[in-house]
Write a structure and sequence with these properties.
Helices cover 0% and strands 39% of the residues. It contains no helices and four strands. It has strands at 24-28, 33-38, 45-52, 57-66. It has a four-stranded antiparallel sheet, with no helix packed on it. A hairpin with a 6-residue loop joins strand 2 and strand 3 (45-52).
Length: 74
C-alpha cells in the first residue's frame, strides 16, 4: 500500500497487486523505480521485478542469481 506523509487515512488499494512474496526491496530515486526480489526456493536463480513508483505500474522483470535480496544504486 502507498501512503503519503500528508494522507490522513490509509489507502485501501494495494500499490503492487499480485500474489508476490518479496524478499528484498529497493528504490532508485534517479529513475523513480521500486525494485523487488523473489528468491523462489532459495536454491535456484531468483527474479527482480521493477515497478514505476509514480504510477504504481509494473515495468519489467529479469532473472538474477541465487537469493537476491538487495540493491546498490550509484
Amino acid at each position: 500500500f502507498a501512503l503519503s506523509i500528508y494522507d490522513s487515512a490509509l489507502n485501501t488499494l494495494p500499490f503492487i497487486t499480485g500474489n508476490n512474496m518479496f524478499y528484498g526491496l529497493g528504490y532508485d530515486k534517479a529513475t523513480n523505480m521500486i525494485m523487488a526480489t523473489d528468491p523462489l526456493d532459495y536454491s535456484q536463480n531468483g527474479w527482480v521485478y521493477r515497478f514505476n513508483a509514480l504510477e504504481s505500474t509494473p515495468v519489467d522483470s529479469f532473472l538474477v542469481g541465487v537469493i537476491p535480496n538487495g540493491f546498490w544504486f550509484n
